[in-house]
Amino acid sequence: MEGQYEIKGMHCSACVAHVKEALESVTGVQSATIQLEAPQGRIKGRGPIELGQLQSSLRAIGDYSIREHVYAPPFEAGPAMLPDRSLATYKPLLLIVSFITGVSLLAQYPFADFSGHLWMRHFMAGFFIVFAFFKLLDIKAFAASYRMYDIVAARWPVWARLYPFIELALGILYLTGISPIFSNAVTLVVLGVSSIGVIKSQLAGRQIKCACLGTIFNLPMSSVTIVEDLTMTAMAGLSLVILL
């Protein structure tokens, strides 16, 4: 069964992610598609779902209220909320990567004995620490977004909550140079698996939000995300070859 609902109390994409996760935790709910525009929710269930159950799940996470949608204009799902895939849209991501690249280079100034391998290590340290920071600003919203496309998080939701901490730990390992073989091997596996979900979503033509920078920036999933994951995977693989 499927129903459309009006949900009050949502103000941003983080609210949308919180509400989606709460509603999908209700027994009998198969999926919930949430957006800021009316009707704010479309819920699919295996059978009739009591409105009281939905309301209780929302009250548990904040000042939200839900009621059945009286009028039913054509429902437009979340992709309509995503910006165009343009250079301006990805400006925050490109700036962050550029800053990390620059700082990683300057760490070896005056470049008398410049090492490409050391630059990769510093770059990966900065990448993981900075990206973990943005995810940890709202870990619950990140987890809800990440579960939409990651093949591991979709099956084991706890993985989505652990992921930012794994990134942070890897960043610290790369920064300090502790256990380089271990850190590169873990990176190779973790980002290699993560890229599978991204590639599958792109091949399927899904219009979903990228969670690489948490939920602070509204970035649509694109080939940029694939390049990001595969570049880091390639760096980890190259570092392993050098170390071994």
Features of this protein?
alpha+beta, 56% helix, 4-stranded antiparallel β-sheet, 2 domains, Alpha-Beta Plaits, 9 helices, 244 residues
Question: Summarize this, please?
Answer:
This protein is an alpha+beta fold.
Tell me what you see in this structure:
It is a single chain. It is built from 9 helices and 4 strands. By secondary structure, the chain is α+β, with helices and mostly antiparallel strands. Strands 2-3-1-4 form a 4-stranded antiparallel sheet, covered by helices on one side. The chain is elongated, with a radius of gyration of 20 Å. The termini are far apart.
**Please, what is the oligomeric state?**
single chain
Number of domains: 2
Q: How many individual helices?
A: 9
The main sheet orders its strands as 2-3-1-4
Helix content: 55-70%
Order of helices and strands: EHEEHEHHHHHHH
Please indicate the percent range of residues in DSSP E strands (runs of 2 or more).
Answer: 5-15%
Number of strands: 4
Rg of Cα set: 20 Å
Cα end-to-end separation: 56 Å
Give the overall shape, derived from the CA principal axes: elongated
Reported for the largest beta sheet, the result is: 4 strands, antiparallel
Unreliable runs: 71-80
**Content-based structural category:** alpha+beta
Mean pLDDT: 88
